[in-house]
Amino acid sequence: MEISLFNYDLPKELIALTPSRKRDQSRLLIFDRGSGSREIGPFTRFVQHVNRGDAIVINTTKVFKARLLGNRISGAKVEIFLVRPINWAPTHWAPTQPEEPNYWAPTHPEGQTHWEALVFPSRRVKVGEDIIFGSYRVNLESDLGGGRWQVAFRSDSQRKKIISHFGHVPLPPYIKREDQQSDIRRYQTVFAESDKVGAVAAPTAGFHFTESILRKLRERGVEIIKLCLHVGPGTFKPVKVNNIHDHIVDPEMAVLSPESAGAINKVRASGGRIFAVGTTSVRTLESAPIVDGQVQAFSGMVDLYIKPGYQFKLVNHLLTNFHLPKSSLLILVSAFAGREAMLDAYSDAIENSMRFYSYGDAMLIL
Asked: 109 near 253, Cβ under 8 Å?
């Protein structure tokens, strides 16, 4: 399939460059794949479509201030955009493991001093050069190619201080403004967990949830299941090849714990439906191994590329934001709901002046 089939025209004024005044004041386009019907209402209407015994699956990763703005010794400005620790190694469990291990220990960035990073401008810096952050220095250890570098902090405490004093919220590349104090709070979900720090882009479908909405879901008997995928900068990587099958998705660290795998199995066994909150939850769920019909816990680098023709194993319904044209995320939702149906829904959203992209409105695909 040609990438041009996943293109659409979006008026610039519909690109959300700032968050809505309140999280749950966003709007929701509800698309029923069975009937083909579409309606638009407030996001709070999401709760009405999830029933007792169903589950929503959320990504609890936490975004950190990954954009480090420093200088060369000459004074020239340099940006180091942290991606992931170099030795970020996953843990794997046997399907019959009786007790849940401390599965976050080897996948948490704490204590890591060697990182993969994007460096700008990449062509002007040199291997072995130090980038200056006040009284601190970060060394460019090796050029990994394609603008990616291995960088080294002198200690973990130094890394934390540099992020604290020189780090900026990693806003999407189409948002050209500087990050603001409000972005620290709003470019983050309310369910992001402090021991799941590692994302350099947010799982934005989760932005619309408030503690009140989560409480109402629990009161309805809805199971809230957690997983984690540390969203990387590749989420914004455009599809530059003509044939979508030639595109490669960047790998990202994901974890589905034994507890969450068991909860998913229980919901499915009782006839409940799985609502994935965002494409990151979809890719993690669909990457999980299934043995004798049972979802298994796993952790590892996920590079699943979902495109039309893919047969979904676990996800019944999807809550997602509106994605960029010619992107792997638009290809994913098109695989879930049909390309023409998605483009028609996007046309409806544009006609009704819905807000697009990370800080924008949402779509519920039933």
From this structure: no
Beta-carbon count within 10 A of 56 CB: 22
> Dihedral of CA 198/202/205/208: which sign?
positive
Select the more confidently predicted residue: 20 or 183.
Answer: 183
Give the number of other Cβ atoms within 10 Å of residue 208's Cβ.
Answer: 27
CA–CA gap between residue 52 and residue 181 (Å, rounded) = 38
CB 171 within 8 A of CB 79: no
Helix axes 328-337, 279-287, angle to 10 degrees: 70
Q: Residue 161 is encoded by which pair of tokens?
A: 């201080």
129's CB contacts (< 8 A; 6+ apart) are: 72, 73, 139, 140
Question: How large is the C-alpha radius of gyration of the chain?
Answer: 21
In this structure, are residues 50 and 275 in contact, taking their beta carbons and an 8 Å threshold? Answer: yes
Report how far residue 1's alpha carbon sits from residue 188's, in angstroms, rounded to the nearest whole number: 34
165-200 pLDDT, tens digit each: 999 999 999 999 999 999 999 999 999 999 999 999
**Residue 300 CB partners (closer than 8 Å, separation 6+):** 90, 92, 253, 254
Query: What single-letter amino acid sits at 54?
Result: D
Average pLDDT over residues 100-126: 70
* Of 6, 3, 166, the residue nearest 80 (C-alpha): 166
How far is C-alpha 187 from the geometric centre of its chain's CA atoms?
11
Q: CA-CA distance, 160 to 65, in Å (whole number)?
A: 10
The tally of CA atoms less than 13 A away on the side-chain side of residue 98 is 0
Q: How far is the C-alpha of 254 from the C-alpha of 251, rounded, in Å?
A: 9
**Cis before 121 (ω within 30):** yes
| Tokens of residue 139, six digits | 């060394």
SS3 assignment, position 23: helix
Pairing of strands 136-145, 130-133: antiparallel
Residue 103 has pLDDT above 70, yes or no: no
DSSP state, residue 250: P
For residue 130, the cross-strand partners are: 139
Residues 213, 191: Cα–Cα separation, whole Å: 12
3-state helix, strand, coil in the chain (%, to 5): 30, 30, 45
